[in-house]
Design the sequence.
């Protein structure tokens, strides 16, 4: 069974739909959050610590990774690799962490375009492919699917053409749930990369949810067998029904989980939300320039002068409280590179 391009070409965005109106309405009700009017990515940032673990673990688990949920949590938050796991499995989890942080922190800048999807692949496949040049590049040779009669497309020019067509159609789809499901179907079916295609689709499927501040999809509790059979139905029959059942069930589970987590967190700090870009600018500048305490204090005061006078004192207090609490597990919020954090920490502690 070869690739049938008509499966993609016949799909007309906003005219055809894999999801029924009733299904879209139910998903919208499940996924709605109180942050719908906030800037893109607000909801995902609020639950980021839990999302990093859940999505990293489940996406890796569906690829056969044997890390447990607890192993994953220790690796992501403590940097502690499991002794009885392979380096490949550890690398897979760490790659997910970086890719999810990229999606959440760049919510206003990314879309279904080449930059986003190619960089997602680069982050997810880092140190996992035999050819390092294949990171973030489309496939240039044929591929096979284990335990399937499906043979993906093998002509590089057509792979590139259809990859761009997937992105174009995805951008046109207005409903975020249909948009998500569309890429979950068509990225794995095309197999545009040497490997890591399904992982790219699982994370890319969250793009519309981040943008609209809907509950994310992390495939909690989805049996690997159901996921694999759903994908095989697409590969071999171009039938989406089973995979759609998996998607609908998985999203409802995910939405319920994050609603409970978000409720336990209480209301977010509106002051921090209002001035998050100013905080990011000040803290990022301090760390990237490896400033000590005295120089950092002057920088914070200069940044505070850009704000309303009534808020300047609180801003200085919030940032100066935040700086001592920075560590390698939370510094990514300010787009700080590990090397920058390490250099700054030595200066700060001295």
Sequence:
């Amino acid at each position: 069974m070869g690739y049938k391009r008509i499966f993609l070409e016949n799909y007309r965005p906003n005219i055809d739909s894999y999801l029924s109106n009733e299904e879209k309405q139910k998903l919208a009700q499940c996924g709605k959050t109180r942050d719908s009017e906030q800037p893109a990515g607000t909801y995902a940032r609020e639950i980021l610590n839990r999302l990093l673990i859940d999505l990293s673990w489940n996406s890796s688990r569906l690829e056969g990774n044997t890390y447990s949920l607890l192993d994953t949590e220790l690796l992501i938050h403590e940097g502690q690799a499991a002794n009885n796991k392979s380096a490949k499995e550890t690398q897979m989890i760490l790659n997910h962490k970086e890719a999810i942080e990229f999606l959440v922190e760049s919510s206003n800048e990314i879309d279904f375009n080449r930059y986003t999807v190619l960089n997602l692949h680069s982050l997810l496949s880092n140190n996992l492919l035999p050819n390092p040049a294949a990171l973030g590049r489309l496939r240039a040779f044929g591929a096979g699917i284990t335990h399937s009669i499906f043979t993906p497309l093998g002509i590089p020019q057509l792979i590139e053409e259809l990859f761009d067509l997937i992105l174009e159609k995805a951008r046109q789809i207005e409903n975020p749930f249909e948009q998500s499901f569309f890429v979950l179907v068509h990225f794995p079916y095309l197999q545009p990369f040497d490997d890591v295609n399904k992982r790219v689709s699982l994370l890319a499927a969250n793009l519309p949810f981040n943008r609209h501040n809907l509950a994310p999809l992390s495939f909690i509790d989805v049996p690997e067998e159901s996921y694999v059979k759903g994908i095989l139905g697409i590969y071999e029959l171009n039938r989406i029904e089973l995979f759609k059942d998996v998607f609908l069930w998985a999203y409802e589970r995910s939405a319920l989980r994050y609603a409970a987590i978000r409720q336990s967190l209480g209301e977010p700090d509106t002051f921090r939300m209002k001035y998050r870009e100013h905080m990011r600018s000040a803290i990022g500048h301090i760390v990237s320039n490896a400033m000590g305490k005295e120089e950092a204090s002057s920088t914070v005061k200069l940044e505070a002068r850009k704000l309303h006078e009534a808020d300047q004192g609180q801003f200085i207090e919030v940032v100066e409280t935040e700086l001592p609490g920075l560590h390698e597990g939370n510094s990514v919020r300010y787009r700080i590179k590990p090397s920058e954090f390490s250099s700054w920490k030595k200066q700060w502690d001295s």
